[in-house]
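Chain A, query sequence.
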Amino acid sequence: MAKYDYGAYFGPIEPLADATRNADSRVWGNGTEKNKDAHDYVLYLGCNVLRTVALAETITAILTEMGVDFVALGGPSTCCGIIHKSHGDTDVSEAVTAQTFAKFDGYAPKAVLTYCPSCHAHIDNTLIESGLTTEAPYLHVTEFIVDNLDRLNFRNRVERRVMFHAHGDNDQAERDSRFARAILGAIPGLEVVDASGGPEWGHDCGSLQIGLVGAEKHASLVKDLFVSAKREKVDAVTALYHSCYRNLCPQEETHGVEVVHYTDLVAEALGLPKHDEAYKRFYKASDPAGAFDELAQRAEARGLKPARLRKTLDVHFGAK
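Chain A, predicted structure.
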């Protein structure tokens, strides 16, 4: 059996993030600095959220608005190890996980705030199955926000009716869903129709889970979700997980229902500047050449050579 091409999987992530991020500098670090400053919290973004980098910028803006002392880590150099584990490279996976745990511990945080559902699940499983340990406790960022709702100063009403999509295949997914609904429920003016899925959806809408659920079955579940959204006359489907957001975005064209991430609604209510979510725009356009024309000058100023930018855009936005 051919060895899995990890370079092809991880390689296009940060180049896309650097080309499409709104800020001049990255909101995430890689944890490799030798002398780390202590922080109360580590926001652990994982790898794949950087494909939709505006979501990473939004959650960091929310925590900053809340006055949280944190450092954000993300990208392939802080991988949790789940991709390696899923392809049978258990020893490599544990080494990658151990390296990331050491980066967490280097900041002496009170806790690690996880963002990616796959990363959180992998950490859970690794701590059970291996001899690895980490000094800091960890919890999903939605739980942290709910515990600190008093820090959210909602300046704006969000007069929208949305359908909330999350997962419920295990206790942690149900907790994430419950916390996110509580956050949305605190937003003035927002009406939420709950459409959290059960075990049939898997743990999230990422490619690994879609493979386990089955592509045809997942497509059927997605179709039913958007048919329900049309029937309920909602303004948008709002996703909890970034992987769900990324894979539901194409349904906008099919069903005529907007897809938003829950943190965008939080940011709107807080009055934070809106980040351009370029991934959705470029995916819907399916025009890598047009994306290159828009991004080339900015990307080169950020150290991304034209050839690599073209390859990155072809991978993400080329022929489906």
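The beta strands are 41-46, 70-74, 111-114, 138-140, 161-165, 191-194, 236-239, 258-261. The CA atoms of residues 156 and 269 lie 5 Å apart.
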